[in-house]
Amino acid sequence: MSEEEKFDAIIVGAGPAGSACAYLLAKEGKSVLVIERGVSAGSKNVTGGRVYTYALELLEPGLHAEAPLQRKVVREQIMMLGEQSGTTIDYVDYTYNSGDVPQSYTVLRAPFDEWLAGKAEEQGAMVAAGIRVDDLIIRDGKVVGVLAGEDEMFADIVIAADGVNSFMAQKAGLRNDITAHDVGVGVKEIIELPPEVIQQRFNLTGDEGAARLVLGCTEGTTGGGFLYTNKDSISLGVIFAPEGAAKRGKKIHEIFQDFKMHPAVYPLIEGGTTVEYGAHLVSERGWKGVPKNLYRDGFVAIGDAAGFVLNTGTIIRGIDLAIVSGIAAARAVLGAKDSAGVGPAYMQELENLKLAPTMKLFAGFPEIIDIPRIPAVYPAMASEIMNYMFKIDGQVPPKMTKGIWDIVKKHVSLGELLADGWKGVRNI
Amino acid sequence: MAGIWIYSEDTIIAQQIITLGKELAAAMQQPICALTINEQDAQSLIAAGADKVIVLKGNNLWPESYAAAIAAQAAQAQPDVLFIGGTLRGKDLAAKAAAALQVGLITDAQKVQFVDGALETERMLYGGLAVCTEVLGGMNVITIPPRAYDVPAQDASRSGEIVSVDVQTDATMAVGNVCPIVRQGADISVAEKLVCVGRGVGKQEDMKLAEDLAAAMGAEICCTRSVAEDYHWLPNEAYVGLSGQKVKPVIYLSMGVSGQVQHVAGIRDSKVIVAIDTNENAPIFAAADYGIVGDLYQIVPLLTEAIKNKA
Amino acid sequence: MPTIIACYKWVLDEQDIKINPGNLDLDTSRAKSKISEYDRNAIEEAVLQGEKMGAEVASLTFGSSNAKQSLKDALSRGPGKAYWVNDDLANKADAFVTANVLAAALKKIGQYDVILCGEGASDTYAQQVGPRVATLLGIPAITFVSEMKIEGDKVVATRKIGDCTEEVTVPFPVVVTLLPEINKPRIPSLKQVLGAAKKPTTEWSVADLGLTAEETTAKNKVKSVKGFVMSRKNVIYKDGAPADKVASLVASLTKEGVL
């Protein structure tokens, strides 16, 4: 074969999934080409967010110590906002930090993704950045390569790691274009603050960190907010369903600004300087949003391209699942006897590595999150209950059972409450 | 008494730099010597303040060809500093002369001072983001932007030494086809009032908004680099920025301009800067005296009306 | 076969540079590097002209060790080989030093018919190195070129000098500095990006070039580099109905006497 360059594997996208897969394949001596659309790995990616370290250790023991990570999370927080109030549950658990490998770290994508892609390059993978893959090359029903501009590149396997609106998965016929129902729109700012200030405001010592999910900040639309403490900045953002936002006539940046200015939120970021803005789509369907087929002959989809994002309302996971799926694909490629065997082997690895069972377990959660009263009613209701419980003005308050019940009745009917409860129980 | 030397192929610019020369001459206790390739301008240079004028007589009309000759003169006389008018021709000549003399060259000095026995210059770095202050060692060539200084008052009674020197000029380059660039529109670098169009103006048809506003204000229209070079809605001579025009209007009003440093570098001498943009975090607002955060399609027509009604 | 050499500078991306609000120092810690904008035009022009006339095209840069990444970038744009004077001296070099180093490197390369440079670097924009190199090599320089053709062994270039254009014809060897309007650099294709890794690179240190200490010492001392902060009034009308904001603005501008 003269001019036609052929690789063992071409990976489209140098995010965590693509880089993890490239790392393992290259380490085992396979010729790997990673094609990244952005000017550098990570430049097109946005996260809340944090990474769970088990995934890094799965890729390579000791890797977490090399990675550019921010703070190790010891505080897991949930916040519900009322109009002028907020209820925050703060769970601090130092066992998350004990042992050699802390459970999770907050992370900034640009340095993290670049580092992971660099590790793949160290192992011998070629990473070509600034190039967009326009199409798959399919011959006799098999995916044999990719087309980038006018250049054709061939490979035994093409691995789609090109993110939430995967064009490669669409070209392969594994999924259609995403609909507004499938995704949330996330917007985020990175707000710089001195480390001491962050430590004081969140009650942290040294390089400990806090992770917080917020409800009631999306002005009634399905969605929620998040806040993660980085070393010298705070990642603050909001994700919500685009249809709902459009119906309410609210612009995304307006909702986000209101969130930032909320009296329970603003003091946390006061004095900080916004140094970065980001926006990105987030897969919201969970397991039900994962395409029925994640492979075809010569092709597999991993990471966000396969829909591997989990939102349980209390935690959000994406990066670890991406890395695990990259590992699964690499193992499948390394172990399969022929190209037709890679797909099934990949699905098996997703089971072995516990990714598929985990996603199936939480398959019903999007239904819960979709309950319209969750963003629109319950946070306000909770706030009002709290307000009632802590209000002392010298008057005689209603009896507690009646007081609380009156508040509940004001926001929701018994039938609605039961229906929501039932939905919750059914889907958990 | 090596002297403060000044050269420009444009005598007016040379005279402007004599204003700077006079400031420094007092501090440095040095005479001012102007070089010119235009024999007939020698007297005016004396009247402007030069103590001596060296007329370079070559047989070439092309100003750039005098680089070696000027360098040779400087090598002989060893002036403390050689100022060259910062036209494009001047910068070309300045670099060649500096290389021939193997001395430093400060391009587009915004400020030149004599401090503690040495010359100090300020110039912009990183597209206008930063200011670099340097202390000069030994003879340096410094280019001064045109119109940075005013032409000094002419004193016809002044006398000075005028010498003529025959020089060899560089003839390897054949220069022909000199065509004036026909200016489409006004010279924005001398405009009193400017309305600036940025990429926030979506379509070329929307330029009308700017035109109406400019008409109401009595202003000329200019733009950012991308509007000229990428969209071609206005000629290249109309863009303001580090590599384009520098403007000094009494009022500069921008619409849909984000305010990148390279653009702001061209407007910093404006008396009043006004910005209209939808993005409240756009850098232009940090560089503005006044501004409105809003949709220019709404704001500009209202503004045009309000200004018309005022009059 | 004629040789065209494009010189480029590996600079910090000014977009990533922050100004420390306290002391106005520059914070370059987050800054990525890039091939200076106008130098990309120079590389592109070298490649375009090389394609047209069948010439050998090479890139040349003077940069410290972090300029290594620039080689892949430059080569992916089309030159057949890259020359790199790899020396930490580059971090302290001014145009005087850079020109001395580049001229010495070009002499070492030996063959140069057309040397292309950008009009100025995006960090310093001193607009000197091109003509300086030419003078040091004893060859002509054509500056501020918006269009160029190569006819046989001559360069025919159109210069844009403010209020006029002129056409200049010069035989090889010659230095040409280019305006950004000369071309629009093509985005390297996948094959070009991959191919870059296979092209030859020659690396020298300044010591290999036989320059004197004086030739490699900057002429002037940098006293300070501070962020430029325009202190303007910053009266920005954000809230309220458009008509109200406009009225407030008009009132302010009237008071300033500029309307």
What features would you describe in this structure?
- The complex is a heterotrimer of chains A (428), B (311) and C (259).
- By secondary structure, chain A is an alpha/beta fold.
- The longest helix of chain A has 17 residues, at 319-335.
- Chain A has helices spanning 16-27, 53-59, 63-66, 109-122, 167-171, 195-202, 242-247, 252-261, 266-269, 319-335, 339-352, 355-361, 365-370, 373-376, 378-390, 400-411, 414-427; strands at residues 6-12, 32-36, 50-52, 72-81, 86-92, 104-106, 126-129, 135-139, 142-148, 151-160, 183-192, 208-215, 223-229, 233-240, 273-283, 295-296, 299-301, 310-311, 316-317.
- Chain A has 17 helices and 19 strands.
- With 311 residues, chain B is of the alpha/beta class.
- Helices cover 28% and strands 27% of the residues of chain B.
- In chain B, the strands form 3 sheets. A 7-stranded parallel sheet of chain B has the order 5-9-4-1-2-3-10, with helices on both faces.
- In chain B, helix 3 (67-77) packs across helix 4 and helix 5 runs parallel beside helix 8 (296-310).
- The longest helix of chain B has 18 residues, at 11-28.
- The model of chain B has no long low-confidence stretch (mean pLDDT 93).
- By secondary structure, chain C is of the alpha/beta class.
- Chain C contains 6 helices and 15 strands.
- In chain C, the strands form 3 sheets. In chain C, strands 11-10-9-12-8-1-6-7-13 form a 9-stranded mixed sheet, sandwiched between helices. A two-stranded antiparallel sheet of chain C has the order 2-5. A two-stranded antiparallel sheet of chain C has the order 3-4.
- In chain C, a hairpin with a 6-residue loop joins strand 3 (18-19) and strand 4.
- The longest helix of chain C is centred in the first third of the chain and has 17 residues, at 37-53.
- Chains in contact: A-C, B-C.
- The A-C interface holds A 5, 33, 35, 40, 126, 128-131, 148-151, 153, 275 and C 18, 32, 187-191, 193-194, 197.
How are the secondary structure elements laid out?
The complex is a heterotrimer of chains A (428), B (311) and C (259).
Chain A: E1 6-12, H1 16-27, E2 32-36, E3 50-52, H2 53-59, H3 63-66, E4 72-81, E5 86-92, E6 104-106, H4 109-122, E7 126-129, E8 135-139, E9 142-148, E10 151-160, H5 167-171, E11 183-192, H6 195-202, E12 208-215, E13 223-229, E14 233-240, H7 242-247, H8 252-261, H9 266-269, E15 273-283, E16 295-296, E17 299-301, E18 310-311, E19 316-317, H10 319-335, H11 339-352, H12 355-361, H13 365-370, H14 373-376, H15 378-390, H16 400-411, H17 414-427
Parallel strand pairs in A: 1-2, 1-10, 2-7, 4-12, 10-17
Antiparallel strand pairs in A: 3-6, 4-5, 8-9, 9-10, 11-14, 11-15, 12-13, 13-14, 16-17, 18-19
Chain B: E1 4-7, H1 11-28, E2 32-36, H2 42-48, E3 52-57, H3 67-77, E4 81-85, H4 88-101, E5 104-106, E6 111-115, E7 118-125, E8 130-135, E9 140-144, E10 161-166, E11 174-180, E12 193-197, H5 207-217, E13 220-223, H6 225-229, E14 251-255, H7 261-267, E15 272-277, E16 290-293, H8 296-310
Helix pairs in contact in B: 3-4, 5-8
Chain C: E1 3-8, E2 10-12, E3 18-19, E4 26-27, E5 33-35, H1 37-53, E6 56-63, H2 68-76, E7 81-86, H3 95-109, E8 114-118, H4 129-137, E9 141-151, E10 154-160, E11 164-171, E12 174-178, H5 190-196, E13 201-204, E14 221-227, E15 235-237, H6 242-256
Parallel strand pairs in C: 1-6, 1-8, 6-7, 7-13, 8-12, 9-12
Antiparallel strand pairs in C: 2-5, 3-4, 9-10, 10-11
Helix pairs in contact in C: 2-5, 3-4
